[in-house]
Design a protein that fits this description.
The structure holds two protein chains of two kinds. Chain A is an alpha/beta fold. Helix content of chain A is 49%, strand content 9%. In chain A, the strands form two sheets. Chain A has a seven-stranded mixed sheet, with helices on both faces. In chain A, strands 6-9 form a two-stranded parallel ribbon. The longest helix of chain A is centred in the middle third of the chain and has 40 residues. By secondary structure, chain B is mainly α. Classes of the chains: A alpha/beta, B mainly alpha.
């Protein structure tokens, strides 16, 4: 019945056309234009507030559901598995252990009891240590309507399931395509415009235009992730001829920082799409890309960074000294390489709000593309960026101490735990030097050199005694 | 996008709760830790333990790790080492570190024996029921430093002195040609008589049965 289907097809086509036109108009007016001009309508913040209300409702429904069935909700206890006592020194612990049996500590007398102590310590480490838990995502107390963070699935009522289903539809059907379009547009524009800019002869014009283009494209990318960023203390923004350091949670950190200022990126040369973007970017502004072989050569790296910094017309360099992604609950050891260069360091702390989506990139669990899709199908990426006052290396301070000082400042501002462990432990093992240190300590106690008792046996954990941290630096250095 | 966690009260959890004495929420948290350490695998191998930085600083790390792979600690009357362990065995070994509930005195005594048995097994690597001088020396070697702080023979002399003490405590006076085989479990118990191991060798698991409101 051809005569019936043709008008229907026409109707369908027309509807589709209207839909696409409306969609594109909305896109351009509400997203692209503000991105280009750098203004904001406040739509994203409104969205964030609405979402929060929905999450609270969802959590309270689950609690009600749990109460009805007289069961308990699983709440990730932030205190950990073990109720730890305050850290005491090795000597005190051994004394306490020895206290009940009669054993004088004046002679180097070996007691079987000491084994109990190390045994217990060992099992405590197996149950809960400061480092391994940093390499997996943080847990939430409330539910944010994402299956991936739900631990109380049994307590969901029908209403909640419906809302969750709607959420899935909205996230995958509406938000994801929109975001992917924006991302493609943003990256495409970046590549095309910066390449074009490379042909301009006039250097200064090229420079100022390139700043604007970079900012615009990063703003589009930020909207592609629905990132709602709050910048604090903008007066401390990094200036030319300095280095900007920040804690690292995800590759998106770069976009978040570049949204507010122009930085020179540092990194390895990649192939494929990344490589193309890198080559385009470097045509219009001075980024530092290293060949794989050059990365090993520390002097070359340091020289190129120093040269860049010495030129005051060039933008500040953006570096992530941790060297790997951490799950945003702590800050791990900063590699000293970037702190050896003689210039001002501008620390920046980035803290993500985990309620809207988990931003941590667990590179052992999923690759980059899967991660980006995950990010684009979360509700939003909400974070706070604090610009800290600039720091300089002081007289008599070496690179490692300076790095620790900066790390402590960033951790304090972002509300993160300051750890001395190396993020490289994600993949590598601890060096034997550490084990020997502990053995050394024990033998000293055994021989009765009691003045050494100041060396708390938890020195490799929290940053309590700065001088011991220094002594520990050599084993933990990866570079 | 991410697995939903299994609910407590599952049949295998009930079984584990009876065997080990942990509560449901403790078992759940320990299971999560197991999964984290094993990178979401079904079993734990020695390598997984080696990747814990805190443990690497422990002088008797290898003994502790071996204890997890020692069938004698699985409470199934088995013997010998295994190459990998499942969650049940992991829990069994962990249960040696639970504090005894403040109840009857007999339970305290058996808990005490269990914990001492665990330590005994840690020393007795060849599983012949006695800790020989060699085995004892090996443990002391691990505990002490290999560096200049002690001379090479100090470890040896410490071990010899300790063995002598044990021998005199348990055997009384020995004939000159009598050879002291090694510390048996009974001697071991006698040696550590005054020592309240059931209070000292415990990991304080936090109480998780009451819902806690973090923040």
């Amino acid at each position: 019945m051809a005569w019936f289907t043709i008008p229907v097809e026409n109707l369908l086509c027309r509807c589709l056309c209207i839909f696409i036109t409306v969609w594109l108009t909305l896109l351009i007016v509400f997203i692209m234009v503000p991105a280009v001009l750098g203004i904001s309508f406040g739509i994203r913040r409104l969205y964030m507030r609405t979402l929060l209300k929905i999450f609270e409702w969802a959590t309270s429904r689950m609690e009600m559901g749990a109460k009805e069935k007289n069961q308990q909700l699983y709440k990730p206890c932030c205190n950990g598995i073990i109720a730890k006592k305050t850290p005491t020194s090795l000597q005190q612990d051994l004394q306490e252990l020895c206290g009940s049996a009669s054993c004088p500590r004046s002679e180097p007398q070996f007691e079987m009891a000491d084994i109990f102590f190390f045994c217990r310590r060992g099992v405590e480490s197996i149950l809960d240590d400061e480092v391994t838990k940093r390499f997996s995502s943080q847990e939430l107390d409330s539910w944010n309507l994402l299956t991936r963070s739900n631990y109380n699935f049994r307590h969901i009522s029908l209403r909640l399931t419906v809302i969750w289903g709607l959420g899935v539809l909205v996230r995958y059907g509406v938000l994801l395509p929109l975001r992917v379009t924006l991302a493609v547009t943003g990256i495409g524009l970046l590549v095309v415009l910066t390449t074009l800019l490379g042909f301009l002869p006039n250097r200064e014009l090229r420079f100022s235009l390139s700043e604007k283009i970079h900012l615009m494209c990063h703003r589009i990318c930020v909207r592609a992730l629905t990132a709602i960023i709050t910048y604090h203390n903008r007066e401390n923004k990094p200036k030319n001829g300095g280095i900007c350091v920040s804690n690292h949670t995800t590759p998106i950190d770069v976009i978040i920082l570049a949204n507010d200022g122009c930085y020179s990126m540092v990194g390895q040369v990649h192939g494929g799409l990344m490589g193309m973007i890198q080559r385009a970017m470097v045509k219009s502004s001075p980024h530092i890309w290293f060949e794989r072989s050059e990365v090993k050569d520390r002097h070359l790296v340091a020289k190129r960074l120093s040269d860049h910094v010495a030129d005051k017309t060039k933008q500040p360099i953006l570096i992530f000294p941790e060297g790997t992604c951490i799950n945003n609950t702590s800050v791990m050891m900063f590699k000293k390489g970037s702190f050896e260069i003689a210039c001002t360091v501008y620390p920046v702390a980035i803290k993500y709000d985990p309620r809207f989506g988990d931003a941590f990139w667990n590179s052992s669990k999923f690759g980059m593309v899967y991660y980006l899709l995950r990010m684009m199908s979360s509700w939003a990426v909400v974070c706070s960026v604090w610009y800290l006052p600039p720091m300089n290396r002081e007289e008599g301070e070496d690179a490692v101490q300076f790095a620790n000082r900066v790390k402590a400042a960033i951790a304090a501002q972002g509300g993160l735990v300051d750890l001395i462990w190396d993020g490289g432990l994600k993949r590598a093992k601890v060096k034997d030097a550490f084990k020997e240190e502990q053995q050394n300590l024990y033998s000293k106690v055994l021989l009765g050199e009691q003045d050494e008792g100041d060396l708390g046996d938890d020195k490799h954990l929290e940053d309590e005694n700065p001088e011991e941290d220094e002594r520990n630096q050599d084993p933990t250095k990866e570079q | 996008m991410g697995a939903l966690q299994s609910s407590p009260g599952q049949p295998e959890y009930v079984d584990l709760k009876e065997k080990t004495g942990f509560s449901f929420s403790q078992i759940r948290v320990l299971h999560k830790r197991f999964k984290l350490l094993s990178h979401n695998g079904e079993t734990l191998k020695r390598d997984h333990f080696n990747s814990i930085p805190d443990l690497a600083c422990n002088p008797i790390r290898s003994q502790i790790i071996e204890a997890f792979f020692d069938r004698r600690n699985f409470r199934q009357n088995g013997e010998g080492p295994v190459d990998e362990i499942h969650f049940e065995e992991f829990l069994m070994v962990m249960s040696h570190f639970k504090a005894p509930s403040p109840r009857m005195i007999e339970e305290r005594e058996s808990v005490r024996r269990e914990k001492l048995r665990f330590i005994f097994n840690m020393h007795d690597t060849d599983n012949d029921g006695t800790i020989t001088l060699e085995e004892y020396r090996h443990v002391i070697d691990e505990l002490l430093s290999l560096s200049e702080a002690l001379e090479k023979d100090t470890a040896k002399s410490i071990a010899d002195a300790a063995m002598l003490e044990v021998a005199s405590t348990s055997m009384g006076h020995m004939e000159p040609d009598e050879f002291y085989e090694g510390i048996t479990f009974e001697h071991f118990l006698k040696l550590l008589k005054g020592f309240e191991i059931e209070l000292k060798m415990n990991v304080h698991f936090s109480m998780m049965d009451t819902p806690t409101f973090c923040k």
